[in-house]
Amino acid sequence: MISVQPSDVDRILDEAIRVQQIPAPTFQEKQRSDYVCQRFVKSGLARVTQDRLFNVYGRIPGQGAPPVVVSAHLDTVFDLQTDLTIKQEPHRIHGPGIGDNSLSVAVLICLKQIVDRFPEQPRGDIILVANAREEGLGNLAGIKAVVERLAPEHPKAYLVLEGADQDRLYIRGVGSQRFKVTVTTKGGHSWSDFGQPNAIHHLARVAAALADLTLPEDPKTTLNIGMIQGGRSVNTIADSASLLLDLRSVDEQCLKTLVNEVAHRIDTFACDGVHLSREDMGSRPAGEIDPDAPLIRLCKRIYADHGITDLKLKAGSTDANIPFSKHIPAVCLGLTYSENAHLESEFIETEPLGTGISILAQLLQQIWKI
Ligand SMILES: [Zn+2]
Fold first, then answer.
1. 238, pLDDT greater than 80
2. Which own/partner pairs from 46-55 qualify as long-range (CB within 8 Å, at least 24 positions apart)?
């Protein structure tokens, strides 16, 4: 068992800050991607390359067995104007995006030095990927492109890195589908044209019907109307109104059923003088890995060896959704603990990081044995 040294942790934390200082809102990852690309080359990774979405790839060569992919998303929820100033305390580093997900990207950059100390060369390549478009309306497009590109190599597993929740493994991907529903009518004057269809009245009926749908509790399935807008003035018959709808389920079939039901409900509201449209705002597929799968059993053993005996197996919406949906073994794991992710007050705990890196190193040494 190789030990992770304090110098590894320091190196990773320094690198995490350098990554965090480069803004990388979803769809604007180029600058951070270019930096990572250059660091991958410098750290001696093989076959370093970037794709058109600014996903960055590099490899630690193995002995020819199918590869294992270790990925971390590049993008953040923070816009280009966000103040990225770092504040360091003895056991904490504060800064927007430091845990989600600069720390994980830094681990990719620094991993080769650790793998080089393994007693044996990995059986297959370790493919390191810093990918774009994980957050928000990125809809996991970055990892989708990665999984497609690497499919011919039949990766053995995907290990998706996040900076938070060290005692949790994400083993189920919550699927989601988002729609914008728009009602348009001719509109008119509230008094003189009274009786003409009103887009807001109509949309409100649609919204009420959707909110009244009965959803399964198990598998958990949800519906949320998160935004509603429309109209011109208080004395105008609204000619346009729209809502944003978010549908989720841990079960792909339940999600599909719900999507069909929603579409059907909406269609029943079409009538003379009223136009209804449904625009697809993106989706994330559901999927999972069996909690008894060899990869999860291996994780449980390694975490227990590191003193984490109450490992929690969770459902979430992470890059692991994509390999899950293609039945490729995958898991999303957290390298340390953090608080306030997606807020400017985000910080990470630095003490547990050594454990997180050691867990990853153990996984990479044992994963080809399962
Ligand atoms: Zn994240």
1. yes
2. 51/145, 51/149, 53/131, 53/132, 53/133, 53/141, 53/142, 53/145, 54/29, 54/30, 54/132, 54/142, 55/129, 55/130, 55/131, 55/132, 55/142, 55/145, 55/146
User: Which pLDDT tens digit goes with each residue over 306-340?
Assistant: 999 999 999 999 999 999 999 999 999 999 999 99
How buried is residue 120: exposed, middle or buried, by Cβ count under 10 Å (0-12/13-18/19+)? exposed
Residue 2's pLDDT band (cuts 50, 70, 90) = low
**HEC-encoded secondary structure of 14-76:** HHHHHHHCCCCECCCCHHHHHHHHHHHHHCCCEEEEECCCCCEEEEECCCCEEEEEEEEECCE
Whether 132 shows a pLDDT value over 90: the answer reads yes
Nearest CA-CA partner of 330 in 55, 139, 54, 71: 71
Q: Cα of 99 to ligand 1 centre, how many Å? A: 8
Q: Domains in the chain, please, with CATH? A: 6-173+286-369 (3.40.630.10), 175-284 (3.30.70.360)
**Residues, CB-to-ion distance under 5 Å, ligand 1:** 100-101, 162
Q: What is the H or E stretch that residue 168 is in?
A: strand 168-173
Residue 1 has pLDDT above 90, yes or no: no
How far apart are the CA of 110 and the centre of ligand 1, in A? Answer: 19
| Phi and psi at residue 332, to the nearest 5° | -110, 125
pLDDT tens column, 286-313: 999 999 999 999 999 999 999 999 999 9
